[in-house]
Design goal:
There is one protein chain. The protein is 0% helix and 35% strand. It is an all-beta fold. The chain has a domain of 91 residues: YaeB-like (Elongation Factor Tu (Ef-tu), domain 3, Beta Barrel). It is globular. The strands form two sheets. A six-stranded antiparallel barrel has the order 1-2-7-6-3-8. Strand 4 and strand 5 form a beta hairpin.
Length: 136
Protein backbone atom coordinates (compact mmCIF):
# COMPACT_ATOMS: atom_id res chain seq x y z
CA UNK A 1 0.00 0.00 0.00
CA UNK A 2 2.32 2.71 -1.26
CA UNK A 3 -0.43 5.13 -2.24
CA UNK A 4 0.66 8.73 -1.84
CA UNK A 5 -1.46 10.92 0.44
CA UNK A 6 -1.53 14.66 -0.14
CA UNK A 7 -2.78 17.15 2.45
CA UNK A 8 -3.64 20.77 1.80
CA UNK A 9 -3.11 22.92 4.92
CA UNK A 10 -6.24 24.60 6.31
CA UNK A 11 -4.13 27.42 7.71
CA UNK A 12 -0.95 28.03 9.64
CA UNK A 13 0.32 28.89 13.12
CA UNK A 14 1.67 32.27 14.12
CA UNK A 15 3.67 32.06 17.37
CA UNK A 16 6.63 33.62 19.14
CA UNK A 17 8.74 30.55 18.35
CA UNK A 18 10.72 30.90 15.12
CA UNK A 19 12.88 27.79 15.33
CA UNK A 20 12.22 24.23 16.45
CA UNK A 21 15.00 24.48 19.03
CA UNK A 22 12.97 27.15 20.89
CA UNK A 23 9.73 25.26 21.35
CA UNK A 24 8.85 23.39 24.55
CA UNK A 25 8.57 19.60 24.49
CA UNK A 26 4.79 19.58 25.09
CA UNK A 27 1.89 22.02 24.89
CA UNK A 28 1.03 21.55 28.59
CA UNK A 29 4.27 23.41 29.40
CA UNK A 30 3.10 26.63 27.73
CA UNK A 31 -0.36 27.30 29.13
CA UNK A 32 0.75 30.92 29.72
CA UNK A 33 1.73 31.56 26.09
CA UNK A 34 -0.75 32.49 23.36
CA UNK A 35 -0.44 31.90 19.63
CA UNK A 36 -2.94 31.87 16.81
CA UNK A 37 -4.16 29.78 13.93
CA UNK A 38 -4.70 31.80 10.79
CA UNK A 39 -7.42 29.76 9.13
CA UNK A 40 -7.85 29.94 5.37
CA UNK A 41 -10.78 32.34 4.78
CA UNK A 42 -12.74 29.89 2.62
CA UNK A 43 -12.96 27.51 5.62
CA UNK A 44 -14.40 30.07 8.06
CA UNK A 45 -17.80 28.34 8.32
CA UNK A 46 -15.99 25.20 9.49
CA UNK A 47 -15.28 26.68 12.93
CA UNK A 48 -18.95 27.46 13.59
CA UNK A 49 -19.74 26.44 17.18
CA UNK A 50 -16.18 26.70 18.51
CA UNK A 51 -15.89 29.23 21.31
CA UNK A 52 -13.58 30.77 23.89
CA UNK A 53 -12.68 28.24 26.57
CA UNK A 54 -13.06 25.18 24.33
CA UNK A 55 -10.23 22.66 24.19
CA UNK A 56 -9.28 21.60 20.68
CA UNK A 57 -6.80 19.24 19.06
CA UNK A 58 -4.63 20.81 16.38
CA UNK A 59 -3.16 18.39 13.85
CA UNK A 60 -0.17 19.92 12.13
CA UNK A 61 2.86 19.16 9.99
CA UNK A 62 6.37 19.30 11.51
CA UNK A 63 7.71 21.33 8.59
CA UNK A 64 11.13 21.91 10.23
CA UNK A 65 11.72 18.25 11.05
CA UNK A 66 14.73 16.46 9.72
CA UNK A 67 15.39 12.82 8.92
CA UNK A 68 14.04 10.26 11.35
CA UNK A 69 15.45 7.08 12.86
CA UNK A 70 13.27 4.09 13.59
CA UNK A 71 15.12 3.49 16.90
CA UNK A 72 17.15 5.99 18.91
CA UNK A 73 18.30 6.93 22.39
CA UNK A 74 15.34 8.64 24.05
CA UNK A 75 15.91 11.48 26.54
CA UNK A 76 14.75 9.03 29.25
CA UNK A 77 17.98 7.11 28.67
CA UNK A 78 16.41 4.07 27.03
CA UNK A 79 16.33 3.04 23.40
CA UNK A 80 12.87 3.47 21.88
CA UNK A 81 11.20 3.09 18.53
CA UNK A 82 9.93 6.28 16.91
CA UNK A 83 6.30 5.20 17.44
CA UNK A 84 6.99 4.98 21.18
CA UNK A 85 7.98 8.66 21.35
CA UNK A 86 6.56 12.09 20.66
CA UNK A 87 9.58 13.10 18.60
CA UNK A 88 8.90 15.53 15.74
CA UNK A 89 11.26 13.47 13.56
CA UNK A 90 8.83 10.88 12.22
CA UNK A 91 8.13 9.04 8.97
CA UNK A 92 5.14 11.32 8.27
CA UNK A 93 5.89 14.33 10.49
CA UNK A 94 2.34 14.75 11.81
CA UNK A 95 1.94 16.40 15.21
CA UNK A 96 -1.02 16.86 17.52
CA UNK A 97 -1.46 19.28 20.40
CA UNK A 98 -4.36 19.83 22.76
CA UNK A 99 -4.82 23.55 23.31
CA UNK A 100 -7.36 25.96 24.79
CA UNK A 101 -9.14 28.61 22.74
CA UNK A 102 -8.69 32.08 24.22
CA UNK A 103 -10.43 34.12 21.52
CA UNK A 104 -11.83 33.81 18.01
CA UNK A 105 -11.85 36.79 15.66
CA UNK A 106 -13.16 35.71 12.24
CA UNK A 107 -10.47 33.39 10.84
CA UNK A 108 -8.04 33.96 13.74
CA UNK A 109 -8.15 31.40 16.55
CA UNK A 110 -6.06 32.48 19.54
CA UNK A 111 -5.04 29.64 21.83
CA UNK A 112 -2.82 28.79 24.80
CA UNK A 113 -0.57 25.76 24.93
CA UNK A 114 1.55 26.52 21.89
CA UNK A 115 4.36 24.09 21.05
CA UNK A 116 4.69 24.90 17.35
CA UNK A 117 6.93 27.27 15.44
CA UNK A 118 5.56 30.19 13.48
CA UNK A 119 4.59 29.10 9.98
CA UNK A 120 3.62 25.56 10.98
CA UNK A 121 1.01 24.23 8.53
CA UNK A 122 -2.28 23.25 10.21
CA UNK A 123 -3.83 20.08 8.77
CA UNK A 124 -7.00 19.85 10.86
CA UNK A 125 -8.78 21.06 14.00
CA UNK A 126 -10.95 18.77 16.10
CA UNK A 127 -12.79 19.32 19.38
CA UNK A 128 -11.13 17.70 22.39
CA UNK A 129 -13.75 15.70 24.27
CA UNK A 130 -12.16 14.05 27.34
CA UNK A 131 -14.67 11.21 27.63
CA UNK A 132 -14.11 10.31 23.97
CA UNK A 133 -10.34 10.61 24.12
CA UNK A 134 -9.45 7.92 26.64
CA UNK A 135 -7.87 4.54 26.08
CA UNK A 136 -10.87 2.66 27.52
Amino acid sequence: MDKEIIFKPIGHIESEFQDREEIPKQSVLTKDKVAKIILNEELLDGIYGLKEGDDIMILFYFHQSEDFKLKFNHHSGEVRGVFNTRSPNRPNGIGISIVNIKKINRNLIYFSGVDMVSGTPVLDIKPYIPELNTSN
